[in-house]
Predict the 3D structure of the following.
Amino acid sequence: MDRTGRGAKALTLNGALPRLDAMPLVPLAAVFSFLKDMRGVLTWTEEDLIHTLKVTRQDAEKILLLLQMQGYVQKTDDRDWLTTAAGEIVSGSKPPRFSRENVEQAISALSDRIAAITRDHRAEFKIAKAIAFGDFLAGRRTCQAAEIGVELSRRIRTAQRDSVKEHEFLKQLGRKSRFLHVLPYQKWMNERTHRSLKLGQAAVPTRAR
């Protein structure tokens, strides 16, 4: 399954349950990002999914049913949910081992680097948007590396896009910190809970509308 969210691939999970019409148009990458966020807790609730992905209760119920059919989640006796080993693998989650303070410091340092790039007119790219998301937003003492979605634009608008150069630029942007995972921006990242990184300013918590 595609974890990137490219092509706005919706949550159909191998065409399961065709009798359920009006399937939620939620990219798989967004759903898996939620499962990744839940790695640090034993169980979680439907409300957690609704809050994180900003979906309706009806869509949340369909998402959970489909994830359950795939063996990625299980319902507990208390009617909560837990992520299975298969769900942890497919979401790319890892045991939380970083302090939230270290992750926050890394995000702040990245904001400073972004501001420096913005001021550097010799830089090949400008950063049009940068948002952070992950389990650090839950305020837990330990968490995984923060995910940073970055949208690039060329300073010279007439220049053609070069995906190889963009990939290398993003790699260099995040390589100095093990507390961050920098990746190309996708629309779904802005539609779940996240933190917008303001160029040259302190990171400001936001919620997607």
Observations:
- Residues 1-8, 13-19, 201-209 have pLDDT under 50 and may be disordered.
- The longest strand covers residues 125-133.
- DSSP finds six helices and nine strands in the chain.
- The domain at 6-91 is CATH 1.10.10.10 (Arc Repressor Mutant, subunit A).
